[in-house]
Task: inverse folding
């Protein structure tokens, strides 16, 4: 499974519905993620990709779209 | 050695339910309850201020402690919603407590920290009581005047309420011994939660959750680890009452049932720095003013500031 597919799978689990956001679609403005599900996203990314996201990186804009999540994961690889 | 000697609180009499708030800000009351766990909050009357609320909570605490106000050597007052830039409410509260025996001239210090202020006050008091013997810590807020009660203030207006809490920290005796505390600050996210001089309250909820969710359990584990204690050994956790979701997530991170967390956010909403002491006061009274297992107090708020305090039962 490639990285984008994994991210989409995580987002579907958190949203608890079969969402299919465009890569550049805002996950917050579209209502796909709320204030609390973003913390679930952090936990899932840490588990799935074997990383620890430091507090200073925990900024909503870094995780506001699939493309931004991909960019963040790339910066950590 | 420092002890928690007594707790007290004061809540304004006006109950504001979700139907009233929802109609002002344009949301569904059922959604409001579901999203926040808050069913109602209290609003101060026009005649009340952070100082009058704080003085009533302090009086309640002193009455419960059954000591003369003259024995209080220092007053620490946390408030993020003070009506003016300076002086803060501390000296007004001290003056209002003179009839309760507080000596004129007793030093009174403001801690304008908002939500973590009471926890910081308790931590400071635990050290300062060596010099001042009995330190009265007060958290008092009129948050209803810091938010916009219209659709433009929807994200914050639904959360906050007014109230005050107080705790007497003593070098002499108490129902609990303060074992240890940790406090931390991080200005990197200072703009995410703030009340500018011309208001209203600004809160970037996503950033705050992303910071609070890991920092609170980490602080709790820090104070526990430092004292070779485990989360499972704690009888009750009393946390800043921000909302039920955050409290549940902290419980989950610590691996303890959420039932171990005392909650009253459904009745009072988020009363910022007052919430920790109001919750602690209600927990203490519901427990018959007795403790059988260690407790942890924890808070997080603007600054960012956060921390945790561990206290163990003390029977003298």
Result:
């Amino acid at each position: 499974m490639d990285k984008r597919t994994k991210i989409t799978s995580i987002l579907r689990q958190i949203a608890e519905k079969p969402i299919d956001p465009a890569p550049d679609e805002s996950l917050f403005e579209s209502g796909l993620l709320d204030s609390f599900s973003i913390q679930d996203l952090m936990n899932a990314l840490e588990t799935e990709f074997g990383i620890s996201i430091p507090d200073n990186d925990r900024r909503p804009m870094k995780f506001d779209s699939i493309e931004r999540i991909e960019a963040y994961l790339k910066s950590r690889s | 050695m420092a002890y928690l000697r007594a707790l007290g609180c004061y809540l304004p009499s006006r109950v504001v339910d979700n139907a009233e708030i929802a109609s002002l800000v344009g949301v569904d009351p059922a959604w409001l309850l579901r999203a926040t766990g808050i069913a109602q909050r209290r609003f101060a009357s026009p005649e009340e201020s952070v100082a009058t609320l704080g003085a009533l909570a302090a009086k309640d605490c002193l009455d419960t402690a059954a000591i003369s106000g003259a024995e209080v050597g220092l007053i620490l007052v946390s408030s993020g919603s003070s009506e003016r830039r300076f002086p803060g409410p501390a000296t007004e509260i001290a003056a209002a407590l003179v009839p309760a025996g507080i000596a004129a001239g007793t030093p009174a210090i403001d801690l304008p920290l908002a939500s973590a202020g009471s926890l910081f006050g308790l931590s400071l008091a635990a050290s300062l009581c060596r010099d001042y013997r009995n330190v009265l810590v007060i958290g008092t807020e009129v948050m209803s005047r810091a938010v916009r009660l219209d659709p433009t203030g929807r994200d914050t207006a639904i959360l906050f309420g007014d109230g005050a809490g107080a705790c007497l920290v003593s070098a002499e005796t108490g129902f609990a011994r303060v074992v240890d505390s940790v406090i931390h600050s991080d200005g990197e996210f200072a703009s995410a939660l703030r009340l500018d001089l011309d208001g209203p309250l600004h809160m970037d909820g996503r950033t705050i959750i992303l910071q609070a969710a890991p920092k609170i359990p980490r602080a709790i584990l820090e104070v526990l680890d430092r004292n070779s204690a485990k989360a499972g050994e704690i009888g009750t956790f009393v946390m800043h009452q921000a909302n039920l979701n955050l409290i549940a997530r902290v419980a989950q991170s610590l691996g303890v049932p959420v039932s171990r967390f005392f909650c009253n956010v459904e009745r009072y909403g988020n009363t910022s720095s007052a919430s920790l002491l109001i919750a602690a006061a209600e927990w203490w009274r519901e427990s018959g003013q007795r403790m059988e297992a260690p407790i942890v107090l924890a808070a997080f708020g603007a600054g960012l500031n956060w921390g945790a305090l561990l206290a163990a039962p003390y029977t003298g």
In short: Helices of chain A lie at 3-15, 37-49, 66-76. The first helix of chain A runs from residue 3 to 15.
